[in-house]
Amino acid sequence: MKDxxxxxxxxxxxxxxxxxxxxxxxxxxxxxxSPSRFHRLFSTWAGATPxxxxxxxxxxxxxxxLCDGASFLNTAFDPQLSGCVSLDAATPGxxxxxxxxxxxxxxxxxxPFGSCLIxxxxxxxxHLSFFDERDRENAIAEMHADWPQAALIxxxxxxxxxxxxxxxxxxxxxxxxxxxxxxxxFQLRVWRALLRVPPGALVSYGTLxxxxxxxxxxxxxxxxxxxxxxxxxxxxxxxxRETGIPGQYRWGAVRKHAMLAWENARTKPDxx
Length: 272
Hints:
By secondary structure, the protein is an alpha/beta fold. It is built from twelve helices and eight strands. The two termini are 26 Å apart.
């Protein structure tokens, strides 16, 4: 079993047994590891101890992080907030041709959150999704459906190198990663607002709707979040309910839990 699969199993177990507050030994036994090996796994994968990691999964902790995200979206736009990512939108004409004349270099590789599929064009990364092995073909079909007329070239080695840059806790890039997206004007506003929410902060759907220019469009904002085809880099996993409940995620609720805890553990002020 790979590290992420064990982490996912542990998170699933903790969610199902939250009222009992299982201890370290109980969770370790559930995923078939000794307490010491379980501790090392978390420290290596999450960059934090199991105790710190599990704290990141609590409702009270999530609620406190909502304030951090709102503060970033309520300030004047600062290009630096988008970090190592720039977004380029397809024109209506490009969307209409459905990828005709475009070539996508695609590949499958491992990531901290399981297997991922990445597609890149000369304009930038156009797809990043996660999948379980049994869903590999469905993941490829989803990417192809976004750009059905595009030519596909497979290069897993190149994709592995790109993934290493994308998922590095401290990216050292000479230039921002370029993203190439297709979406409505409102979707683009939502995705650009998401780029301003840094790792370790969260936003509610209502706050994100306001940042996108329509306070009453929480439902449309949720739809825009769910339509995002470039996971992680456009951080739709940082959007949760105002109650502190993470909610659903296009690539699995457990994976969303793991992403939030992984990011938060690695951005703690004490460097845990």
